[in-house]
Amino acid sequence: MICIDETLAQLYVDNEVDTATKVAIDKHVLICKDCAQKIDEQRSLSTLIKEEINTLSNAPANIPNFASISSKLNNNKKQNLSRLIFAASAACVIAFCLIFFLRKPEEKQQLVYYYKIEFNEFDANKPYTEQEASIIIFDENGKIYNH
Ligand SMILES: [Zn+2]
Predict the structure, then answer these.
(1) Which of 17, 46, 60, 143 has the largest CB neighbor count within 10 A?
(2) How far from chain centre, in Å, is Cα 83?
(3) What is the pLDDT of residues 66-124, one digit of tens each?
(4) Virtual CA dihedral for 39, 43, 46, 47, nearest 10 degrees?
(5) For residues 73 and 80, is the Cβ–Cβ distance under 8 A?
(6) What is the largest CA-CA distance in the chain?
(7) How many A from CA of 116 to the centre of ligand 1?
């Protein structure tokens, strides 16, 4: 077997290699001081990490009493909630007003007026400004407003 690398050494220490690999490594470290040392280093590192984790998990849990603060928080939450409801209803009224008032100009803008000039009697001998004519104003639906 060729020498093992750090990754394989770590897997071996964590018992995450298959049986055949484990047996091969067991045999190899008997004849290879380098790999035996790698395994030892990984094992001591792994042990150190496990000890650190145990220290952390065994640390006494000093949880201070938050009772008074949490009751204050609850009061604040209630106040915030009523403020939120007020703000939401105000926003609804404003939104309704905006929709109501913004709608009308849009409808007006949709109306397009056209006009055409109709000559009653066209006299070719008179200048353009003296011709008798009437202006017809109508919208896009063809509705006539004056004639
Ligand atoms: Zn080796």
Answers:
(1) 17
(2) 26
(3) 666 555 566 667 777 788 888 888 887 888 777 777 766 555 556 677 887 777 777 78
(4) -170
(5) no
(6) 128
(7) 103
